[in-house]
Amino acid sequence: MLKKSLAALLVCSALSPLVAIAPSTFAEPGYGGPRWGANLENLNLTPEQRQRLQAVRQQYQGQMEQTRNQLRTAKQELRQMMSGNASEDQIRSKYQQVRQLENQLASLRFESMLAMRGILTPQQRQALATQMQQRRQGNRPMKPQQ
Hints:
Layout: H1 2-15, H2 37-41, H3 47-83, H4 88-117, H5 122-136
């Protein structure tokens, strides 16, 4: 059971950077997973859309940063417990804390993504989905000529 939990922890740690929408003008280290910034720039966002996207980012940034820090600390503590003399119950408890923080961070990212999605028009969403699919396949779209 403990081996399965540890394997799951390692997999979750590797996969924890989930998708977050962050225009490149806001994309700084630690805001989330893969950036949509380059793709958003190709969507001809209005100044109002850019401003609204910035507001959403600011709304979630503090919570996400705090949760990321708590998660980083909890994972470090779990690693120390695994190599130390902590009991199995203490390790399980810490593992549950890590899982809870991972879920909390994933929920914040998802809510942020939904809020940003609501700012885009249906055409922009479709164009974004196409661009992201191309990026996943390694066919990065060229920037539009100006």
